[in-house]
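Q: Convert this sequence to structure tokens.
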Amino acid sequence: MGQVGHVSVGLADSIMIGALGTIPLAAGAFANSVFVVPMVFGIGLAYGLTTPVANADGEKKPQKARSYLKHAIYLNTSIAILLFAMLLLLENFLHLMGQEKEVLDTASGYFQIISFSIIPLLSFLTFKQFAEGLSDTKAAMLISIGANLLNIGLNYLLIYGNWGFPALGLEGAGIATLIARILMAIAMITYVMRKKAFQIYTAGIQWMEVQKEHFRKLLAIGVPSGLQFIFEVSTFALAAVMAGWINAEALAAHQIAISLASISYMAASGFGAAANVRVSNQLGAGNIKAMRQAAYTNLILVLVMMTFAGLIFFFGRNYFPSLYSDDLAVISVAAQLLIVAVAFQVFDGAQVVALAALRGISETKIPTLIVLFAYWLVGLGTSYYLGFIAQMGVLGIWYGLALGLIVASVLLIWRFEIRTKSKSSKINA
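A:
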């Protein structure tokens, strides 16, 4: 629920922006498709904190968890500032991505605002991943849901100009998202630092003492994890760019379908987070059998959930797009894309759990290469071929995405199995 709440900020934006018309919806889709690539690298870096904290918890060494939190605060704050600067620089090159001028002009202000929101977002995630490493997930869930409700309310005021507020359109949605993320960060930091059960981990932090090996550990897990997210998300971002090459209607339909599919994906990533925590914790306790059980239990749960989600998308394929747009051409294409989404739901869930379980055993290098191969070579290569050479349009692009997910899930599960198939497996934690 916490992960779904996180992505629902973008979902609410898409639905409420869609009421403004196809161009604002396409502009929001384009801005987010660019913003999300550096953002997910920062998210992956933040995820690097969960494994060592859970390991330390399993080893009953709170002082180690305390030190990792401190180093993660320094690291993630620095990276967030660098990513914000990079996004501002990147804006000068957006015109080279082949989008319609009206879409680019509309996207500019919104892109600048959401770029700044990466700083409070990574602050929130740092403390969220720390809490999750200690198996505390409810607070982050409640904070995410609360931020969503706030975001929707602010959208209502700032996009349309209700209750005397200025009608800011797409930029209003960006301001609403920024405010929600700032308050999320404040709430999560306050919760972690004030919770009595966490005092053993947070009290007495020696802020001036720095250990290079703890930075190295966080980077060893976080950087490959960030690259994994980049390879996956950039695949969908580049798919959005390719859809924009066709026309604004194709891009809008892609945004509708991908925003719906992202709901089930983020729910699946919640099971992945659980797999990461339990696998790391049991590894720290030295229980290899329980570690494998944790991973495969989460895999079974996510397969059931994603099958159910796929059926919902199939039967609602003509209804859900109408929540975003009244353009019949956009709705028709989005409905076709949702049929493809049904096909890759199961594989999408499987790969996110397998990646998280591998992260739990600090196995990141080979999975990163698998993700690169599956998404960029297989997925994007097939998308371009089917979409433009075979002239299947945006539907062909989505067939390529589906193939990439299938290949990724099979290879990642195989990698986890061969690394953990016996109790005597030697795992470099």
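Residues 2-420 form one domain.
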